[in-house]
Design a protein that fits this description.
It is built from five helices and two strands. It has 169 residues and is mainly alpha-helical. The chain has a domain at 38-140. A hairpin with an 8-residue loop joins β1 (153-154) and β2. The radius of gyration is 31 Å and the shape is elongated.
């Protein structure tokens, strides 16, 4: 049952001595469980499953770290050797990938973890490789100073003398 604001009697404001209804007492009348966009209950089911605990374990995170480092090395044709990534950021990425991909594969946990690990390594390695390439391009072009533009000149329409404008006008 969805309640509308008209169906709820106005509440008196505690600040007023007169028993007047509050003009700006806006409340959400739709109960939480009946919202069409509420997926909290579905997410709560996946919070503490053995699959989630195994996927987010420190041993699995280390395997993903090693996979990312190897994939970036492979993508760069043996040019980039990167260090381990921030574990908090990696865990956030892993949680996001888990929450968006795991609903279909709850039964086969070993194969699901392998699939999620491969997907996480692919996503992270591509981003890191592209950012490393961008950074190296920035370092190359940083020393090149662009040529400044010439000062503006004012010419009249009648082809008279060229007048230089003083700076600051």
């Amino acid at each position: 049952m969805i309640l509308t604001p008209e169906a709820i009697p106005p509440k008196p404001c505690p600040q007023n001595d007169i028993n007047m209804p509050c003009l700006f007492s806006m409340y959400e009348y739709v109960p939480r469980r009946h919202r069409p966009s509420d997926i909290r209950d579905e997410i709560d089911v996946l919070q503490n499953t053995p699959l989630r605990c195994a996927y987010l374990s420190t041993k699995n995170m280390q395997m993903i770290q090693n996979g990312i480092r190897a994939k970036v090395y492979e993508l760069s044709k043996n040019n980039f050797i990167i260090s381990e990534q921030d574990s908090v950021t990696l865990k956030q990425i892993m949680i996001q990938i888990f929450n968006s991909n795991v609903r279909d594969h709850i039964n086969n946990s070993q194969q699901t973890i392998i699939t999620l690990n491969n997907f996480t390594v692919e996503v992270c390695a591509k981003q890191i490789y592209e950012r490393a390439k961008t950074y190296l391009k920035y370092v190359e072009t940083q020393g090149e100073i662009p040529t400044p533009m010439a000062q503006p000149a004012f010419t009249s329409i009648k082809n008279e003398d060229v007048k230089m404008l003083p700076i600051g006008l």
